[in-house]
């Protein structure tokens, strides 16, 4: 039987499920490594009350890779209305993941159990088995903890790092062995698309995850964001995104970067609705080449709902092309 190429996608937020859905029906062995440092919305409330790993990004990854009918997905994603004060804003899937984590004693086992129940195509691994806190140092020398607070500060971030939320004994956050094995065995590691400092880097800042990405023989592909993000990457070029990743990893570890070169029409974006974004990411191809990157620049843009997104099919086609090039 032909070996299926192994692809590991590391991230969180809204970008991760888009790529997962695109890869689901391809002939690849998918592993999603999902961030657990989210502290906003329903996930943040559950995390604060029950001290559980925030389930939102995991829920979206499950829905992206499930083979269940649409009605089952809709139920899992259903969010209670604000008038239901007791359950306001909570997604049913978040409550199910939280309940299973309590039943099984940890989030990792719970997600594997749920993956089996939901007929998941591939693997979904929370990057850690405990809630993590994102910390940031800004260029003005101040420091802050908590993903939502860091973004809301709207300051230039110098570096981020991770600490366990239950850091009573000063222990370091570690990923499960399955996560590290998946990275080491992969043919391709995909980072993004997603928030640079709050969806991608929190995973890489876990010591054994960062080590595995540095050591793996897999090609490391970064899908560069189309728009800059307020409070995170204001005025960033594509080369700035890669520079920050490489600085945090301590060397030139990004092998290939996918860059959208299709202009975003100025009058199309509704900045009130998509209030996290500010402007299209600028291009600095010389800066990318200096970092030893292979640059794949193309029209990866999909305009919908007055926002700018990655065209899932075009991105997936390029990822598959890279896999074939590496294997040939």
Characteristics:
single chain, 328 residues, alpha/beta, Rossmann fold, Gluconeogen_factor, cytoplasm, CofD
General description of the model:
This protein has 328 residues and is of the alpha/beta class. It has a domain at 6-32 and 128-327: CofD-like domains (Rossmann fold). The chain has 13 helices and 14 strands. It has a 7-stranded parallel beta sheet with strand order 3-2-1-7-8-10-12, sandwiched between helices. A 3-stranded antiparallel beta sheet has the order 5-4-6. Helix 1 (15-24) packs parallel to helix 3 (56-65), helix 5 crosses helix 6 and helix 8 runs parallel beside helix 10. The longest helix is centred in the last third of the chain and has 16 residues, at 312-327. 46% of the residues are buried. The mean pLDDT is 89.
CATH class of the domain at 6-32 and 128-327: Alpha Beta
Cα-based radius of gyration, to the nearest Å? 19 Å
**What would the principal axes of the Cα set say about the shape?**
globular
Instruction: State the order of secondary-structure elements, H for helix, E for strand.
Output: EHEHHHHHEEEHEHEHHEEHEEHEEEH
Terminal CA distance:
17 Å
In helices, the fraction of residues equals 25-40%
Mean pLDDT: 89
The stretches of 5 or more residues where confidence is low (pLDDT under 50) are none
Report strand order across the widest sheet: 3-2-1-7-8-10-12
Name given to the CATH homologous superfamily of the domain at 6-32 and 128-327: CofD-like domains
In what range is the share of β-strand residues? Answer: 15-25%
GO molecular function, one term: LPPG:FO 2-phospho-L-lactate transferase activity
Family: Belongs to the gluconeogenesis factor family.
Protein name: Putative gluconeogenesis factor
Keywords: Cytoplasm
